[in-house]
# Entry
Amino acid sequence: MAGFLIKRLLQAIFVVIAITLLVSFAIRLTGDPAVTMFQGGGSMTEDDLARIRQALGVDKPFIVQYLDFMKGLLTLDFGRSFVGNTPVAGLIGAALPATLLLALISMVVSIALSIPLGIKAATARGKSADQIIRILSLIGLSFPNFWLATMLVLLFAITLGWLPPSGMDSALTYIMPAVTMGVILTATNVRLVRTSMLETLQSQYIMVARAKGLSESKVLYKHALRNCAIPLITYFGLQFGGLLGGIVVVERVFNWPGMGTLAFDAVGARDYPVLQGVITVLSLMIVGVNLLVDIAYGLVDPRIRTE
Amino acid sequence: MKTVGIRAAYMALAMAGTAFIALPAMAEGKLTVSTPQDPGSWDPIDTFLVQWAAVATNIFDGLTYRGPDLKLVPGLAESWEELDEGKRIRFHLRKGVTFHNGEPFNAEAVKFTFERLLGEQGAKGPQRSNYVSIDSIEIIDENTVDMKLKAPDPVLLTKLAGYGAMIVPPKYIAEKGEDFFNANPVGTGAFKFVSYAPKVNIQLAANPDYWGGAPKLSELDFRFIAEPSTAVAELQAGRVDLVLPPTIPIGMIDVIKNDSKLELVSVPGPTVDALRFNTKSGITADPKVRKALIMAVDRATIIASILAGEASQIASFQGALSFGYDPEMKPLPYDPEGAKALLAEAGVKPGATVQIDIRGNDATMNEVAQVIASYLQMVGITATIKPYETNVLLNDIIPQGKTGAMFQQKWGGWTFDYDNTAYSMYHSGEKWNPYDSDPEMDKLLESQRPLTDRAERERILKDIAKYAADRALELPLYNSNAIYGINKRVQGFVPAPDTRLKLNEVSVN
# Structure
């Protein structure tokens, strides 16, 4: 297990270096933050631009800038935002919990919904309950998240006036963003649970369990669900990465002060340090979650633990 | 038990009543404002963002003040006089003014502010370049300062009313440090800073000791909402009272007009749109072709239909509020037949192509460009539209001269002075002027810069506009209105063309 962990850890470090290098390099090809800062400022001279570039540190060669960034990273110093000179670590510190909370709530909602629905669909295979669940999930899958978000706002915030349209202040503000993320996740997960369950239910040990006279719920939840947990855990883990990506759009619509909003604004302003910081933290997290998934395998499946 | 409860309720009611009567001057009410961007720092020298000014106008004051009527009036300076042929301005400061932290406002604070702006700290930000005509500040006495200039600067007094020239507290910054000041601004303005959560909001409270009179509101909450539909939804839900420009797109105007609780208020703003030409190569190198392309497009119809009338037609690259605007100057007429004749004269065959570069995220311009393309089609020119991400267009495509034959330029200087636009657009070697180099134009532009004689300078600026139109350097499109969405419970709101709103006279029902 220790050797395995070290190997995965080294892999993770390599992935993070590759990603930050790519991101830092790519964003520097798309424009000069000094020019962006002068927008609306009227005439600017080359001297002005040079002065700003020097203050921002973007006059140095790319490799020096990148190494400075990596050096700071070791002490969790992400540098300072080009917009307002705020320490990036502080901005991420404020945004990360907002995003994680939203991602976590939507995942919990989706798992809580998709497991019973998926099992129901699998056991009622071909019957009307299965058809309804499958059609609903197809509809859920076909919604683009920004569209669903806008429709929810229109209905619940404007027409009915039950929920606040955006922001993150009261518990009520969590409902629509979590539902938007949750619906789309659930739609995928239901199908996954159903397929995985169908496969398991055909195994001989299920037949044995039934033959022993176990109650149907014991068969389903104790014998079948545990066995189809492996692909589900892998998938939920991988999904977390996708979730963080999809959250950018949802955060923007709901004006959620999370990592997506931070990244979106940083791209617009060519705020290199913020963008590098956000991407680094997110990639570390995705890599970390995948590592946890690997460890979780061992916990769920004793065969992997002993290997 | 029951009677006690009722009595307590009566007592509370009575006490509330007394409190209400006892404090008639103390204003009540909170106004929530939606603004599209968080500037990240509240330090006046750090930014050019209009969204900074929309908030900070309530926190800081300058020596001069320019409100929604765009007239320059005394601010922290009660009066001023120009000495040494415009190379020295003497300011007589307002007495008895204090910063929100209790520090006195005096000549020392003025000196500190400008030395900071022009010194090491200012060098890190973009604002300094606006104030380089200032040579030094001399303290005459506690309430008088002299501003020595390197050369006369006719726009300086206007510039002193905003942005980098906001007066900041010397002791506070020295004690708390620059970083702290960025996130905890202190000024002399109508509202005091309360709290700031990056990307969420900044909250202000009334400054009852404000030299211009206590504000009518007790609290101001500026929320940063980037997405237009989200801002409008918040307005409709009653959680936001005022949506600042540039947020509400033309397409959402009806949503606000159709809501009985809301009102749409608009005023001509500083922003002008034009399609500029590549005057160096291709068919648009010929002024006849450029004129033909202008005449081929029915600009009035575009404004009436696509911009829902929320814009006015322009003859030069400036709006009617701009200093240097000439009401006598008329745009080239819409004349497709004349355009065809000009094109034939220039030897341009039907089927010739032009590329129009626009900002991809500018929904209005995307529609406008399509209409322009079909107008051009009618005179035999095939136009292709190329949308760019805004920053790429501004940082790379325009300055590097990599545009198509026509490219969108959106411009709006808060000083409302045509010099700001014309110099950047037409002077040789300027970042925004990749194609044109005209000694005649350079001479005109340079000749008006040091003039403090307003009439003479205005005359030259008008000449510049005429000269640019004669050479058909751009296809002038329109001057957009600044559009505010507002809840009807807000009273006394006056829209500002430049979004620099001082909300001390506003109240809520």
